[in-house]
Design a protein that fits this description.
This protein has 334 residues and is α/β, with parallel strands linked by helices. It has eleven helices and ten strands. The longest helix is centred in the last third of the chain and has 16 residues.
């Protein structure tokens, strides 16, 4: 089975600066770590890297660092960090990104921004510049911000937009699930009326704090399919953000205090969940797992990395000299 991960993160806190990483996320997630989180059922994998919210001064350096790893980790496109509300500074930054051949789109992370920013004159101008370069825009917003993205889509109909993480609805946990709210379903439907907007089936495990079940999250997948149609859905892992949570059963490196930890099988489990859901519903699995993302990001002509499948568990890999998550799992939590 071929799998295109539309939402992969990588980071290195020793090379780049981040203000939000903490706990098990505050470690290196790079080449070795992603290699030990491959999709078990996948015979072929490729991915789009989505900016990991470095500080603004590091946006371009992040692109260059990921590009240096791209061939080895299977990244065929980069969604770069960008502020779209900075006028001539936005223009200059986009020009700098245009020199990087793997850049296929940008993300101005909106989830923490003031109300109205995405439909401000400055932002809309920046969005039009993105569209003029035939790039995409990843919309990372909270559920209550969905109407703003619908307004942005109306203001810039030539801009290809993809909604990250279904708009981050409240989902509860496996033991205390929350049903999709009427407001979220309504706003999702309104956004989907814009034909250039797609939706990523990603991030829901993270919204559940890593404590989730297929039964809990399938109603949200159904709502997305009803709104967008299968032809505008794409699978994304949101790795490693969405693989942090309670220790998996039998995990030998589980923290003694029960604190959240890295879930080594969670990326594959999320892929398996979406595949099983799509198969039961009679949806086109290859469209959701490959073709839609490939077409949206327009990376069909880029090389595909065929992954070998060594029978090695993530916690059985030899320690690294750098401070990656695999070392943290063995107790190096200083």
């Amino acid at each position: 089975m071929r799998v295109f991960d539309s939402h992969l993160h990588l980071w290195d806190p020793e090379l780049l600066h981040y203000t939000w990483l903490e706990g098990p996320l505050a470690w290196l997630f790079g080449e070795t770590e992603v290699e030990n989180s491959r999709i078990v059922r996948a015979t072929t994998e490729k991915a789009v890297f989505v900016q990991a919210e470095t500080v603004e001064d590091d946006f371009l350096d992040e692109v260059r660092w990921v590009a240096s790893l791209a061939d080895r980790v299977g990244v065929v496109g980069i969604v770069a960090g960008a502020r779209l509300d900075r006028g001539t500074d936005t223009t200059a930054h986009l020009e700098g990104l245009a020199a990087e051949p793997l850049v296929v789109g940008v993300r101005h992370n909106l989830q923490g921004e003031p109300d109205g920013l995405a439909v401000s004159a400055a932002f809309v101008t920046g969005a039009r510049e993105v569209a003029a370069r035939d790039w995409t825009f990843d919309a990372c917003v909270r559920a209550e911000q969905l109407p703003e993205i619908a307004r942005l889509a109306g203001a810039v109909p030539e801009l290809r937009i993809v909604l990250d993480h279904l708009g981050k609805p409240e989902v509860g946990t496996a033991d205390a699930p929350v049903a999709p709210s009427m407001e979220w379903v309504r706003d999702l439907d309104d956004l989907a009326r814009h034909p250039q907007v797609f939706c990523k089936l990603s991030g829901l495990p993270g919204e559940a704090g890593g404590d989730w079940s297929a039964e809990q999250l399938e109603p949200f997948l159904d709502a997305a399919a009803d709104a967008f149609g299968v032809e505008r859905l794409m699978w994304g892992s949101d790795w490693p953000v969405s693989v942090i949570g309670p220790a998996e059963e039998g995990y030998e490196h589980a923290p003694e205090d029960g604190s959240p930890t890295y879930q080594s099988t969670a990326r594959s489990r999320w892929a398996d969940t979406v595949i099983a859901w799509a198969e039961r519903r009679g949806h086109d699995v290859d469209a959701i797992l490959w073709r839609n993302a490939e077409g949206f990001y327009r990376v069909r002509e880029r090389p595909v990395r065929v992954q070998e499948r060594p029978d090695v568990r993530a916690d059985a890999v030899e320690p690294r000299s750098r401070r990656g998550i695999l070392g943290w799992l063995r107790g190096g939590r200083s």
